[in-house]
Write a structure and sequence with these properties.
Blueprint lengths: L1 H18 L7 E4 L5 E8 L2 E5 L5 H14 L3 E5 L9 H9 L4 E3 L3 H10 L5 E3 L4 H10 L4 E2 L7 E6 L5 H12 L6 E6 L2 H16 L4 H11 E5 L3 H11 L3 E5 L4 H6 L5 E4 L5 H6 L25 E8 L2 H6 L1
Parallel strand pairs: 3-4, 3-6, 4-5, 6-7, 8-9, 8-11, 9-10, 11-12
Antiparallel strand pairs: 1-2, 2-13
Helix pairs in contact: 1-2, 1-3, 2-3, 4-5, 6-7, 6-8
Length: 317
């Protein structure tokens, strides 16, 4: 529909604009012996993108940085839902100039991209079969990351709106029965209010069974007495998404080292980052934010060094 096209165009422009700022610069350095040392970036030649059936946002987030990096060929694997390809995904693919699309999903899509299409790198999220398959082929091809179930941690205080926090915890929980939703607060009263709100909101939710199972098994409220305890909890969890509904948040943000994306203030729900804020929504999960970052233009570039030594350089060195 024209409405969805307009929404995709709008998201595309915001994501594109933000990612153009990420492009790495070549380095050239000449020392006092006139030896020249360079560091050059080159785009990966051929990239396969896996997009679950009906997620045009995922295609935009994966293909836009590849396009900006200058990837020569982008191949899309996109399974059908009810025997149909999703028109929004296809519209986004056309907008991105993707000419090769395979209607295939699951582990077999990863196998096909690796051994039949012979791509150099595979990116894009999927279910547990996709994640395991990516892990299996890594080494023969590059991969972005082994993404686990989605997760959010929310920091709240006595000034926070419990209904909004409950909504954001549920928004994550409805993804998957294995999704992880965590509230961290220095206010026990807020924790109680959020728990009550969760029960009320879950009743009206179309995906209430999934969200309920997720919250029951992987939902958690952490009572932290001090800001240091809050920060320590976050850095230990290393969440994919972190929302901060804390009145005085500067000190907390300055000390957080492990998080995929951080959403600051009550008007910055994680859903904004999923679709139109601009930064990438492909983020490290399962604590991997301790050593990795979200997808960027640099993930589609490789680099090599050029070393040119002079006569006096080799003699002296």
């Amino acid at each position: 529909s024209p409405k969805i096209k307009k929404a995709i165009d709008f998201a595309y422009n915001r994501i594109f604009k933000y990612h153009t700022l990420q492009k790495a610069k070549d380095i050239s350095y000449t020392d006092k012996l006139n030896n020249n040392l360079k560091y050059k970036f080159f785009p990966i030649k051929k990239v396969g993108i896996y997009v679950p059936a009906n997620l045009p946002s995922t295609l935009l987030m994966n293909a836009i940085p590849a396009k900006i990096a200058g990837v020569d060929k982008i191949i899309l694997a996109n399974p059908r839902l009810n025997k149909k390809l999703n028109p929004a995904v296809i519209y986004a693919a056309k907008k991105l100039g993707i000419k090769e699309i395979y209607s295939i999903g699951g582990a077999q899509a990863i196998g096909s991209l690796t051994y039949i299409q012979k791509v150099d790198k595979i990116v894009g999220p999927g279910n547990i079969f996709v994640a395991r398959a990516k892990k299996e082929v890594f080494g023969e091809v590059g991969i972005d990351m082994v993404a686990g179930p989605s997760e959010v941690s929310i920091i709240g205080d006595k000034n926070s709106n419990p209904d909004w926090i409950a909504s954001d915890l549920i928004a994550q929980a409805e993804h998957d029965i294995f999704a992880q939703s965590i509230l961290i607060s220095d206010d026990k009263n807020l924790i109680n209010k959020v728990n009550k709100s969760l029960k009320v909101q879950l009743k009206k939710l179309p995906k209430k069974n999934i969200a309920f199972k997720s919250l029951k098994k992987f939902g958690l409220a952490i009572f932290a007495k001090t800001k240091k305890q809050i920060v320590d909890a976050v850095n230990t969890i290393a969440p994919e998404h972190l929302e901060i509904f804390f009145h005085n948040h500067k000190e907390i943000i300055n000390n957080i080292e492990n998080a995929g994306s951080i959403f600051i203030g009550k008007f910055s729900p994680e859903a904004m980052g999923d679709y139109i804020a601009g930064p990438n929504h492909v983020l490290p999960t399962s604590g991997s934010a301790k050593f990795s970052s979200g997808l960027s233009v640099n993930d589609f570039l490789k680099r090599h060094s050029l070393i040119k030594i002079t006569k006096s350089g080799i003699e002296r060195l």
